[in-house]
Write a structure and sequence with these properties.
Elements: H1 16-29, H2 34-138, H3 147-178, E1 186-189, H4 190-201, E2 210-214, E3 222-225, H5 227-244, E4 248-257, E5 260-267, H6 299-309, E6 313-318, E7 324-331
Parallel strand pairs: 2-4
Antiparallel strand pairs: 1-3, 4-5, 5-7, 6-7
Helix pairs in contact: 2-3, 3-6, 5-6
């Protein structure tokens, strides 16, 4: 019987010297007989089988662990899918609720605008009649009034004028909110506008310690905007400054920076605390301590809406005791 072993295919070809060493080594370790050789090979085969069995057991354990991991991943995936679907249902429900709330807010805003417009329209006629009657009673051609009667008629006329101002502001605010104000875009020369403001508001600067300063803008002072709406905004801001400033000055200046015009109305009045900067643009809000001066709390909200309509912004910089500066920024080429 001849028994042999193959040399691995990737082994280098043996040299004659190497073959001689193999023969010497094989002669040294050659088994005494065939039974010894079979015993050795059986032992090697048993060892190989044990190693294969051990690897098979390890592979089975790994397969079990992998299956358990797969079950955990699948369960986590299902849980995440359910949570995502639940979240999506919540988001859809939230969007639906937001749409409903938005529709309710639009309806409420439209109702408020209609209410303000109707009330303003209905109040304007009787208030105007009261003012006319008061003027007739005070007229020199009418029967003379006593001093007390004249004083009371004056109070009636003054109260009616204040009420008419409130009615007009309510009507303007209702128009702005309902979108019924359409700007009449045109190229406006700011110098005549500033001259008109200087002339019409000078009469309001009745306090001896307050000076109204309207700086002439540098030529060419051209801005594409609505002249009437811009005039209303600046007149409102200047009137507020004159009303609340007891000493110092109220100043209007304008300058062009790149493609924008900035209008600044500054005063040396009492100033406004930083925490109230946003609130003064709320309807009917008045800064505590200023109600004695008068006003409705509608001028600034209306001015900001007009500025927004013109494509610009209205901002406030102020500190208590250091005056206020309102800045209107408008695009030079229009909205």
């Amino acid at each position: 019987m001849r028994m042999s072993r193959r040399v691995p295919a990737n082994a280098p070809a043996p040299t004659p010297e190497r073959l001689a060493e193999f023969r010497t080594e094989l002669g040294r370790i050659a088994p005494a007989n065939l039974l010894d050789e079979l015993t050795v090979q059986n032992g090697q085969l048993v060892a190989a089988l044990d190693e294969v069995r051990s690897q098979r057991d390890e592979l089975a354990v790994l397969n079990d662990e992998l299956a358990e991991t797969n079950r955990g991943v699948l369960a986590l995936y299902n849980q995440l899918t359910e949570e995502l679907e639940e979240t999506n249902r919540g988001v859809v429900a939230l969007y639906a609720e937001l749409d409903e709330k938005s529709a309710q807010l639009r309806a409420a805003s439209e109702s408020k605008s209609r209410f303000l417009a109707n009330v303003s329209h209905e109040l304007r006629a009787p208030v105007t009649a009261i003012i006319g009657l008061g003027r007739l009673l005070s007229d020199s051609s009418s029967d003379p009034l006593t001093a007390e009667q004249a004083r009371q008629v004056g109070l009636i006329r003054s109260s009616a004028q204040d009420l008419l101002g409130l009615v007009n502001e309510l009507l303007d605010l209702a128009k702005a909110e309902s979108g019924r104000i359409e700007p009449d875009w045109e190229d406006v020369d700011l110098r005549p506008v500033f001259g008109q403001l200087r002339g019409t508001l000078r009469a309001l600067a009745t306090r001896p310690g307050v000076e109204l300063v309207v700086e002439e803008p540098a030529a060419p002072a051209l801005l594409r905007t609505d002249e009437v709406l811009l005039g209303q905004v600046l007149r409102n801001l200047l009137h507020n400054g004159l009303k609340f400033t007891e000493r110092g000055e109220v100043r209007l200046r304008a300058e062009q920076r790149d493609d924008r015009w900035n209008f600044q109305v500054s005063d040396t009045g009492p100033g406004i605390a930083p925490e109230l900067h946003d609130r003064i643009f709320e309807e009917f809000y008045q800064v505590p301590g200023t109600t004695r001066v008068g006003g409705t709390g509608l001028g600034l909200p209306y001015a900001r809406r007009l500025v927004t309509l013109l494509g610009g912004t209205l901002e406030l910089a102020s500190e208590q005791g250091r005056g206020s500066t309102f800045t209107v920024s408008l695009p030079a080429g229009g909205a």
